[in-house]
């Protein structure tokens, strides 16, 4: 059961090995233009993450707005951020559901709020491909502030430094995605103070604060946690910052509920006019999971 006010969901898309029935059903449950876009992905892993993301959006929007699943209409801003096209007056997009998707590593995650701007980002803490951790961090030198780098360098172990870097990266990406400004935003303008040293899979950290261009961003709140070995950050704009700390202590808001593919598909309805597409399945089945793997 999804709540109307605040939603945090995750699906382990990487582990999904779709059957023909599952994949053709999923394709019937997204808008035609999204189905076509997903069909153009070269690798299965990307197609799976994309279709899971669209299904999550539709499930959450349907629940939060009380609109039947098959009636949800989604569009994209010129920066590529999805939004709800449904309206009550035929002109203005319906308010009441702000959401954001992120997928990387094993998971696809969604964060949604009824009345707040929201952004989410996830990163798996794993060794970068074809390079050492220190070489990778050197290439990312301009992405963090001097204060943030000093925190990263306090750790002696390379993997701990990488984890600290990814934590900052998730925070910055969650904020930029909440703004909806796209990749042109210079994240070096953002200076995060992570008062809590370590994140945990068991609870949510809400003590991190932000300065933008040196000025405290008191109207923004951040939630951080771990999903297995993935850093996750959620940024949300707060209307009354002085109440956020008190409100955040109530209830399980911030914890990500992990759904199985079966749970996700169980609440999806084929859209009007959609049909089971054998060719769409064959196109997907012939692809490699990842570069260099077998179909």
Automatic annotation (TrEMBL):
Q: Where is the 4'-phosphopantetheinyl transferase domain?
A: 117-235
Record-linked Gene3D superfamilies? 4'-phosphopantetheinyl transferase domain
For whether the record's keyword set contains Ligase, the answer is: no
Q: Supply the EC number(s).
A: 2.7.8.7
Catalytic reaction(s) noted: apo-[ACP] + CoA = holo-[ACP] + adenosine 3',5'-bisphosphate + H(+); apo-[ACP] + acetyl-CoA = acetyl-[ACP] + adenosine 3',5'-bisphosphate + H(+)
Where would I find the 4'-phosphopantetheinyl transferase N-terminal domain in this sequence?
A: 15-114
Instruction: Tell me which UniProt keywords the record has, alphabetically.
Output: Transferase
Q: GO annotations under biological process? A: lysine biosynthetic process via aminoadipic acid
Q: What class of enzyme is it?
A: transferase
One molecular function GO term is: holo-[acyl-carrier-protein] synthase activity
One cellular component term from this protein's GO annotations in UniProt: cytosol
- Return the similarity comment: Belongs to the P-Pant transferase superfamily. AcpS family.
Name of the featured protein:
L-aminoadipate-semialdehyde dehydrogenase-phosphopantetheinyl transferase
């Amino acid at each position: 059961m999804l709540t109307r006010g605040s939603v945090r969901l995750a699906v382990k898309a990487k582990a999904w090995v779709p059957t023909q029935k599952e994949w053709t059903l999923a394709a019937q449950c997204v808008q035609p233009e999204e189905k076509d876009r997903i069909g153009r992905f070269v690798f299965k892993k990307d197609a799976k993450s994309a279709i899971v993301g669209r299904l999550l959006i539709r499930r959450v929007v349907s629940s939060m707005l009380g609109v039947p699943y098959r009636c949800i209409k989604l569009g994209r801003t010129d920066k590529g951020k999805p939004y709800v096209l449904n309206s009550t007056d035929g002109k203005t997009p319906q308010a009441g559901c702000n959401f954001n998707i992120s997928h990387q590593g094993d998971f696809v995650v969604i964060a949604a709020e009824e009345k707040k701007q929201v952004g989410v980002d996830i990163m798996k803490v794993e060794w970068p491909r074809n390079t050492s951790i220190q070489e990778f961090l050197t290439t990312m030198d301009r992405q963090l502030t001097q204060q943030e780098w000093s925190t990263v360098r306090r750790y002696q172990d390379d993997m701990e430094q990488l984890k600290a870097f990814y934590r900052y990266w998730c925070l910055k990406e969650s904020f930029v995605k909440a703004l909806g400004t796209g990749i042109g935003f210079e994240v070096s303008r953002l200076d995060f103070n992570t008062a809590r040293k370590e994140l945990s899979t068991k609870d949510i950290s809400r003590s991190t604060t932000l300065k933008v261009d040196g000025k405290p961003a008191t109207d923004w709140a951040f939630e951080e946690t771990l999903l297995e070995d993935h850093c996750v950050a959620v940024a949300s704009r707060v209307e009354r910052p002085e109440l956020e700390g008190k409100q955040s202590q109530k209830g399980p808001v911030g914890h990500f509920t992990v759904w199985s593919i079966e749970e996700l598909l169980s609440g999806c309805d084929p859209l009007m006019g959609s049909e089971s597409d054998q060719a769409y399945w064959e196109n997907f089945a012939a692809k490699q999971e990842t570069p260099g793997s077998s179909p």
